[in-house]
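Task: sequence design from structure.
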């Protein structure tokens, strides 16, 4: 295990305890859905995300800005500014850059520099399809979190992730979970993505990975069931820990009016409380 202080995993342990929340608010600023006041404004994307973050910061265990929403709008500078703002204002809340990168080692080195040095994220999502040498460059950044796609929340995830890949008939997503937990995670930096839309698979993954943190998108707009998700992903005797359960659109676009921040807070509060209730069952 990595013993350097304030690692992503340690940040998570502290924030689960101090905030009493497993909610991750996803920052996916869709230009078509931004409230009118931000449309066409030079730093409208940054300002929208900042206001939602300020309205929900006491309710979350992490924030997860999604890279594509910024890059498609030529708003990488606003993403940099947003992560800097979040880290300065809420240093106890880990920021996950969701960019789902995956490439050969020499290129992955630059994706890792992008995530951890340019953007200053605490963790990044990565695609394991190209194997360990495509993940290794991220692990060289001691203490940073590397969140590997395992069983994704989308329906098409089954196309490949369910293929049986071992003589014993193990599906690919469980093979990824095993590799990640038993071979790749020598420094304790790895977490896995499993979708809230597939609670049975969350339980299978949890059984393999022990106490490894899970990023679980798919509640809210994708319809994942909160009770089933929390029950499947819980760590025995450690209720309220082990999961970053993401909701983006249901919180960000709870209202398209001038009350968007208040409405986002209301949905975030309901979601955090539903997650807490489920954990206490
Ligand atoms: O890695 C992710 O965050 C991710 C993995 C996955 O399997 N499914 C998934 O929806 N996501 C991301 O989680 C967010 C879900 O957004 P909502 O469906 O609006 O809550 C989006 O930013 C997705 O890109």
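Answer:
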């Amino acid at each position: 295990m990595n013993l350097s202080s304030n690692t992503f995993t340690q940040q998570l342990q502290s924030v689960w305890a101090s905030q009493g929340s497993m909610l991750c608010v996803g920052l996916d600023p869709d230009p078509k859905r931004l409230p009118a006041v931000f449309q066409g404004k030079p730093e409208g994307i940054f300002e929208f995300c900042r206001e939602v973050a300020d309205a929900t910061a006491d309710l979350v265990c992490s924030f997860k800005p999604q890279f594509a929403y910024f890059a498609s709008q030529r708003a990488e500078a606003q993403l940099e500014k947003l992560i800097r703002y979040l880290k300065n204002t809420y240093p106890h809340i880990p920021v996950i850059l969701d960019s789902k990168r995956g490439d050969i080692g020499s290129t992955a080195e630059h994706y890792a520099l992008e995530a951890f040095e340019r953007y200053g994220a605490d963790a990044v999502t990565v695609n394991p399809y190209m194997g360990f040498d495509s993940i290794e460059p991220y692990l060289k950044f001691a203490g940073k979190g590397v969140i590997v796609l395992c069983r994704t929340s989308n329906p098409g995830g089954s196309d490949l992730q369910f293929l049986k890949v071992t003589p014993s008939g193990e599906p690919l997503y469980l093979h990824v979970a095993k590799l990640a937990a038993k071979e790749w995670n020598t420094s304790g930096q790895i977490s896995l993505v499993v979708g809230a839309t597939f609670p049975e698979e969350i339980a299978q993954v949890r059984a393999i990975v022990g106490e490894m943190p899970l990023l679980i998108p798919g509640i809210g707009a994708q319809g994942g069931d909160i009770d089933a998700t929390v029950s499947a992903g819980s760590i025995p005797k450690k209720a309220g820990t082990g999961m970053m359960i993401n909701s983006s659109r249901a919180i960000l676009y709870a209202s398209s009016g001038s009350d968007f921040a208040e409405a986002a807070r209301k949905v975030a509060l309901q979601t955090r409380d539903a997650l807490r209730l489920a954990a206490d069952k």
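The radius of gyration is 18 Å.
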